[in-house]
Amino acid sequence: MTPKIEFRGLSHRFELGAGDFAALDDVDLSIAEGEFVTVVGPSGCGKSTLMNAAAGLLTPTGGEVLVDGAAVHGPSPQRGVIFQQYALFPWMSVRKNVEFGLKIAGVGQAERRAKAQHFIDLVGLTDFADALPRTLSGGMKQRCAIARAYAVDPTVLLMDEPFGALDALTRVQLQDRLLDTWSRDRRTVMFITHDVDEAVYLANRVIVMAARPGRVHQVIDVGLPYPRSEEIRLSPEFAELRRQVWHAVYHQPTTLEGSP
Amino acid sequence: MSRSAKRPAKGSALLLTAGSGVLGLLVWTLLANSGIQGFPGPLSVVERFGTLVGDGTLPLDLLASLRRVLIGFVLGVVLAVPVGFLMGWYPAIRGLIEPWLQFFRMVPPLAIIPLAIVLLGIGETPKIFVIFLASFLSSVVSTFQGVVSVDNTLINAARVLGAKDRTVFTGVVIPASTPFILVGMRIGLGASWATVVAAELIAAQEGLGYRMQQAQLYYDLSTIFVQLIVIGLVGLLMDRALLLAERRLTGWQERR
């Protein structure tokens, strides 16, 4: 079966003042249809670069990304992206934000409105449909951004530290909502995070990356069953996985020398 | 509380403004009574104001000045907005235009007047031209700044939802740079107003600046005061009107 997302020999170098910098070096990675994969790693490991390449927002200097077997050239509504900074259009109401992608897709006004309403209700923003983003809390903004991404019905969700700026409680609530939706529609998710707990709690598989140059350091399978709950979060199995991931993230070889 | 950095409450702010007005009038009266030759007090200025309104001079002068400002200002903005957008969107166009823009920004519009009079005659054209220049220069720079500072994440968000260049431009770049354009318009209007009065001092047959220049010949300080007060008040009113439009159109901004 063709993987849903496949990174083939992906490399990316950024030009910096004092020479260039390898953000990614020869990354090979496959994500299967319906999988929930989290990518975790220290800053500078290129995890956001990896996601931007998959989103088509960045053209890698080497290698390629395939989605459903076709090379990615530029962004597409097939690949929904959730940004850490929410990226809501501040001059549009929640409703207008959610309708934005549908309008581009040429969906008629009545259908657009009904669809947008459905996703606004789904993320619990019914009472805020006509509110401007500046009046919403961080968690509500991200829920609006999620509704906006779902509205165009992407086959893949690419999430770049989406809950990174939220308080701990809101973060856990949004994690549970996301898993809830995912377990119903099994839409492939690639989720970038720097939070080890979050990485383990959400994923089928945790990809741990290393920095300088950015590369895949270790892949850890999470055998925990879904639905995940507080019980799982407090289980010894979770603690053990968390320890493994933590170790992989924070005890990395600092240079390339000596690594295989 | 008196040293608090907070703005005073609405009621006491109004009181302070009124108090400031009264204080100003008091200082003015004192100055008038201090024996400076021909220095008019508030009463004689009000009297002169009545005369100038009564014989139609002031309304006609005001109309002449406003007409010049509005024509020049509107022409300047109408050209500045598309040029600013082009500069922000296409780096090549920016590279070609920006050196000239930066150069002309350093030349006060008033310094162009002698040249404009020689080339365009002493009619309305040279005055409107310098006002146009003043409003164009301030609006074009801020429009361009607005386009350049549009948050890249917003552009990316639109693109991943399927937006092509055209939609990104009309749906994201234009609304996101509106606050900058409006700020530029406010600065441009202020600059236009300042320029028209000065332009009229040099060559005109009517207008607030011309009236002051005439009054100067006859040592008529009351008339000069009337013109100055009208210039200040009209400028203030125009600025407030644009500020109101700005609040209306860009109320979506996150204020910190």
UniProtKB/TrEMBL annotation, chain B:
Quote the InterPro entries the UniProt record gives: MetI-like, MetI-like_sf
Looking at the keywords, is Repressor present?
A: no
Alphabetized CDD domains for the sequence: TM_PBP2
Q: Which domain of life is it from?
A: Bacteria
Query: Coiled-coil segments, which residues?
Result: none
Which residues are listed as membrane-spanning?
A: 69-91, 103-122, 128-148, 168-189, 217-238
UniProtKB keywords = Cell membrane, Membrane, Transmembrane, Transmembrane helix, Transport
Q: Where in the cell is it found?
A: Cell membrane
The record's annotation in Pfam families points to: BPD_transp_1
Q: Which residues form the ABC transmembrane type-1 domain?
A: 62-242
According to its record, how does it sit in the membrane?
Answer: Multi-pass membrane protein
Q: Which family does it belong to?
A: Belongs to the binding-protein-dependent transport system permease family.
Record's protein name: ABC transporter permease
